[in-house]
Amino acid sequence: MSDAARVHELRGLIAAHDEAYYGHDAPTVPDADYDALVRELRALEAAHPELVDTDSPTRHVAAASSSVFSPVTHGEVMLSLDNVFDVEELGQWCERTARALDLDPEALAFAVEPKIDGLALSITYRDGQLVRAATRGDGRVGEDVTDNVKTIANVPHELTNAPGLLEVRGEVFLSREDFAALNARQRDAGAKEFANPRNAAAGSLRQKDPRVTASRSLSFLAYQLAVIDAPLTFTSHVATLAAMRAWGFFTAPETTRELGAAATIARSDWFAAHRHDVAYDIDGVVIKVDDLALREAMGSTSRAPRWAIARKLPPEERSTRLLAIEVSIGRTGRATPYAVLEPVVVAGSTVAMATLHNQDQVALKDVRPGDLVIVRKAGDVIPEVVGPVPEKGRRRKGAWHFPSTCPQCHGPLERRGEESDTYCVNPRCPAQRLAQIVHFASRAAMDIEGLGEQRVAQLLALRLIDDVADLFFLRVEDLVDLEGFGELSANALIGAIADAKERPLSRVLIGLGIRHVGPVAAREVTKRLRTYDELASAKLEDLEAIEGIGPIIAGSLYEYLREEETIARVPRLREAGLALREPDVSAGVTTTLAGRAVVVTGAIAGLSRDEAEAAIVERGGTSPGSVSKKSYCVVVGEAPGASKLTRARELGVPLIPASEFARLLETGSWEATWSDA
Q1: Which fold has domain 430-576?
Q2: Which residues neighbour 148 within 8 Å (Cβ) at sequence distance 6 or greater?
């Protein structure tokens, strides 16, 4: 294909993808694949100036607005951003920018902020009153979504001391917490789940009925101010952000002002390392010249400002070929379909397999061997197949059907009641046994260092173990001559197993992999029933009466304790030296939250969600995932879940800021209350 023909083809592909993404909120390829097409087109246009066309997608912003909403002309053009993809390119941009301003790169101040993966929006205020809200559209003309935007809880309808005409620019988004809650509601209603927060937010905002938008818990993050006709005077970007916060807007708390290229690059690296520590999805870092006068001097191209750049982070979605669909068997016997893929680099690591969740999800997504599919990997989350990519002219294979027998033991696979999952019902299935022992040794359970899946498989194959209790009877001489072992490693593993004997009863329950009994349930049960004997002799109604333990968890635990295999296993654990007892209280920690349910929403500085919940539990409280009449309070961090805030207000549950969390842990009380401002 000639370069001219390829340019023509690329323009057509990019235009079609733009229309799908901006016009229908239904992208057909991942961002990384789209970026690759744009880069290729730019390179060809640079090499062949005679092929440059003013209508090329490299010369304008996004796609035209759809006809669903009335058109709106922005008071000031909403530009796109040029991209860089690594530290070297970012450093070169910083140097070029400083050189254009006749400054030393280390003397120029930049604002560094997260590039949130949402839907761009402009909200117009006249003399402090919200008069219009519009999507970006093609940058000049967008869609009027005013009625829908007025339903977003954190969008102020009035601004104090903001005379004249101005536009607040930002992104509509769903926090990860609200996205998970939305998809849970979709599942409960038997409706299709959303692929990612960006698509869900865009589709929710562009609903004809504002009541639908209001039900979706959208949020708005402000990142730019366009002063159209107002007496406001700001000298820097960070001062503008401060003013917008004072008006009641949510701005990215992670935004910082950095002096010089080195500090700016280092801060962008921080975002790359912590992209999953913020409460919303980000796909890059935005770097802006902080001084507004310098921005004015630099100006813009037809599509992007010269004073800003986006450093794109490694893509979390890529497309690749689905080679086959296989089924794995987990510790509870659950049969999980997974995709075997042509290896592709996603989020910085090579992915060759991805989950397909369950039989219903495979059917709903309609992915088939041979399809080009989109694969998503977010941080440490297991990669998943999002769906197929349409390919014109390609004949697809027949629909994939779930097997009726276990691929490991060849026993029957069955679905239980109304559940979407399928199970191998053979308790002696070797795949289940392997997964059970691996889980028992995992960090979240008994934390036996050095006992991973490969090692467990080796011990099972040699018949040195057949059950978790067998681990505690292994000896150094059993291991020292095995492949991969030496005297040092054998002693280390036996030592790690001996250390595990000191784990509390709650960790043992987690390790046993009892269905429906996770870390929270295990801790709640063992706060009331502190020894295994108390637990084993408890009546079903006693278990159901424990705070946070409903009939499903209680029933599963009650049945497990009476299974023949369990009854045979426990004496061997005692013989091995496990105490099977829960300590009373952690040394030096008082039960300031005894009997109180504290809900956490949003990010708390310096703590992961698990660490915050563990701190609550350690002080005698519980940390449920939802707000109820029994909730003591809701701790509100950065980018909180709108649905939890709404529910708390409806029930009159106190909202306290994350800054009061330490006081709450120490005393069980707080001083300040949280407000949207």
Answers
A1: DNA polymerase; domain 1 (1.10.150)
A2: 133, 205, 206, 207, 210, 213
d(CA 458, CA 438): 12
pLDDT tens-place string over residues 407-452: 999 999 999 777 788 999 998 899 999 999 999 999 889 999 999 9
Q: Which helix (DSSP H) or strand (DSSP E) does residue 164 occupy?
A: none
* Cut 0.70: pTM above it: no
Residue (of 410, 616, 376) closest to 520 by Cα position: 616
Enter the CATH code of domain 317-390+401-423. 2.40.50.140
Using an 8 Å Cβ cutoff, are 501 and 604 in contact? no
CA distance 208 to 203: 10
**Arithmetic mean of pLDDT, 32-61:** 75
User: What's the CATH code, domain 597-667?
Assistant: 3.40.50.10190
> Distance between CA 658 and CA 660 in Å, rounded?
5
Q: 71-312: which CATH number, 3.50.50.60, 1.10.10.10, 2.60.120.1440, 3.30.470.30?
A: 3.30.470.30
Contact (Cβ atoms closer than 8 angstroms) between residue 153 and residue 175: no
Intra-chain end-to-end CA distance of the chain, in Å: 58
Please enumerate in sequence order all residues whose Cβ is within 8 A of that of 151, keeping only pairs 6 or more positions apart, or say none: 210, 211, 213, 214, 218
Q: Nearest 5°: phi and psi at 563? A: -75, 150
Residue (of 250, 252, 247, 287) closest to 266 by Cα position: 287
Which is the catalytic residue, given 115, 288, 377, 644?
115
Angle at 322 between CA 321 and CA 326, to 5 degrees: 160
Judge whether 115 counts as a catalytic residue. Answer: yes
Q: Where would I find the beta strands (DSSP E) of 230-333?
A: 256-259, 282-289, 308-312, 317-329
Closest Cα to residue 22, out of 81, 59, 55, 68? 68
The answer for 267, left when phi > 0, alpha when psi is -120 to 50, beta otherwise, is: alpha
- SS3 of 66-85: CCCCCEEECCCCCCCCCEEC
CA distances from 547 to 167, 511, 535, 598, 609 (A): 49, 22, 15, 13, 21
Burial of 398 (C-beta count, 10 Å sphere; 0-12/13-18/19+): exposed
Q: Which fold has domain 3-59?
A: Helix Hairpins (1.10.287)
What is the distance between the alpha carbons of residues 137 and 143, in angstroms, rounded to a whole number? Answer: 7
- The region, left, alpha or beta by phi > 0 then psi within -120 to 50, assigned to residue 260 is left
Query: H or E segment at 565?
Result: helix 564-576
Contact 197, 174 (CB under 8 A): yes
Q: What tens digit of pLDDT does each residue of 113-172 get?
A: 999 988 999 999 999 999 999 998 888 899 999 999 999 989 999 999 899 999 999 999
